[in-house]
Amino acid sequence: EIVLTQSPATLSLSPGERATLSCRASQSVSNYLGWYQQKPGQAPRLLIYDASTRATGTPARFSGSGSGTDFILTISSLEPEDFAVYYCQHRSNWYTFGQGTKLEIK
Amino acid sequence: QVQLVEYGGGVVQPGRSLRLSCAASGFTLRTYDMYWVRQAPGKGLEWVAKISSDGSNKSYADSVKDRVTISRDNSKNTVFLQMSNVRAEDTALYYCVKGRSGYFSDWGQGTLVSVSS
Q1: CB-based contact (8 Å) between B110 and chain A?
Q2: Strand A33-38 and strand A45-49: pairing?
Q3: Residue B79: exposure state from Cβ atoms within 10 A (0-12, 13-18, ≥19)
Q4: In sequence order, what DSSP letters do the residues of B70-98 get, joined into one string?
Q5: Which residues of B29-57 are buried (b: 16+ CB within 10 A; e: fewer)?
Q6: A14 to A6, A19, A106, B9, B47: CA distances (angstroms)
Q7: Peptide bond before residue A59 is cis, with ω within 30 degrees of 0
């Protein structure tokens, strides 16, 4: 079973700053990795799939990179609506999520 | 637009059964794999089950295998999750999710299952 480990658990930043969120897989997942955003009281939303492809409606300030075991979600300049919990997810015969990174306002 | 509406949640006693339903609209259900994903209160996301577009292939998380069955009725635009022998650890918000190449592209708002005596 592939385990996804996200870091940091919590990231405290201010609007306008750059955010870098990490997801590490316990073995190679090629580029089969997605990123989701979840705001309080809402369902998650797919932001990025196949490591770097933005889903429909995802703003350009969100970008994904990486392959193999190490992946990064970057938010180039934080907007107030970006403060949320972010999850990475691997697709295979089973569907694994990371434990999440909470992006909070500093 | 894609709409997924879950219902059937509620309070259920340990060991009992429950069936969740998901009404889909705004897209052609029969062409998409569908999933159930759950989230325990204050916790992260956990994939529960998957059913292929035609219903021929199903897969389950180890945590629920042998206790849940996913099914679908494409003619009625509905996906189901039959839960049996429920446990306290099944308490969660259950989301119905439309798939896209193994990712979870569209989510319902969820139905809450609370297992309690």
Answers
A1: yes
A2: antiparallel
A3: buried
A4: EEEEGGGTEEEEEE-S--GGG-EEEEEEE
A5: beebbbbbbbbeeeeebbbbbbbebeeee
A6: 21, 9, 5, 39, 32
A7: no
Reading the block at residue B84, the tokens are: 């049996």
Q: Show the tokens assigned to B58.
A: 């199903």
Buried-exposed string A34-63: b where 16+ CB fall within 10 A, e elsewhere: bbbbbeeeebbbbbbbbbbebbeebeeebb
Between CA B114 and CA B10 the distance in angstroms is 6
Interchain proximity A36–B110, CB inside 8 Å: no
The rounded distance, in Å, linking the Cα atoms of A58 and A48 is 8
Q: Is the pLDDT of residue A88 over 90?
A: yes
Residues of chain B contacting A94 with CB distance shorter than 8 Å = 47, 59, 61
pLDDT tens digits, residue range A16-26? 999 999 999 99
Span A20-70, pLDDT tens digits: 999 999 999 999 999 999 999 999 999 999 999 999 999 999 999 999 999
Task: With beta carbons under 8 A apart, name residues in chain B contacting A89.
Answer: 45, 103-104
Look up tokens 């989510």; give the residue: B107
Q: How far apart are CA A104 and CA A14, in angstroms?
A: 8
Question: Chain-centre distance of CA A41, in angstroms?
Answer: 18
